[in-house]
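Memo to structure team: turn this sequence into structure tokens by end of day. - J.P.
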Amino acid sequence: IGMEALSEKCRSCEFVLSCGAGYYPHRFDKV
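Reply from structure team:
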């Protein structure tokens, strides 16, 4: 598990490293 487990939208977000993938709109995005 790592960056590969994140959605494309999450990985492309500029805050991904500081966020830790906890940004709710990205984490629960159904796309």
